[in-house]
Amino acid sequence: MSDALREAAGQWHNQCYQLKRTTGFYERGVYIRAETDLTWQSGNVQPASQAAIERLPEGSRKDGAITIFTHADLRTAASPNDVADRIVYQGVEYEVGGEEKWPSHSRYTCTKVGQ
How confident is the prediction along the chain (115 residues), in pLDDT tens digits per residue? Predict the structure, then answer.
């Protein structure tokens, strides 16, 4: 991770996390996964509130959810034709499940993968 990214994260009380984005395409109605890109991002990461967890689809409501406030544009589980982004934070992998877009940044609720 670059020193500039670490400095920016500390300046805004943000934490660094890894973004795993899987790309792919549809062929004859079947989604074919291509590559997975892994990049560093920064944002304010907090435990998700119960209200944020309740806004997720019922099958996605799991213990261990986090909320990320960030300028990054993340893909959610509800994104059509896309695979939801995965976040690796403090060694734990999460799937981006819900979003609220605001003029200056967005809030994403992410649930643990593999519970």
Answer: 555 544 444 444 688 999 999 887 778 888 788 888 999 999 999 988 888 777 776 665 556 789 999 999 999 877 666 788 999 999 999 999 888 898 889 999 998 887 5
Rounded to whole angstroms, the Cα distance separating 17 from 45 reads 9
Q: HEC states along the chain?
A: CCHHHHHHHHHCCCEEEEEEEEEEEEECCEEEEEEEEEEEEEEEEEECCHHHHHCCCHHHCCCCCEEEEECCCCCCCCCCCCCCCEEEECCEEEEEEEEEECCCCEEEEEEECCC
Q: pTM value?
A: 0.76
Delineate the domains of the chain, giving CATH numbers in brackets. 3-112 (2.40.10)
- The CA distance from 37 to 18, in Å, is 10
User: How is residue 77 written in tokens?
Assistant: 């589980």
Residue 78 contacts residue 56 (beta carbons within 8 Å): no
**Residues pairing with 15 in the sheet:** 43
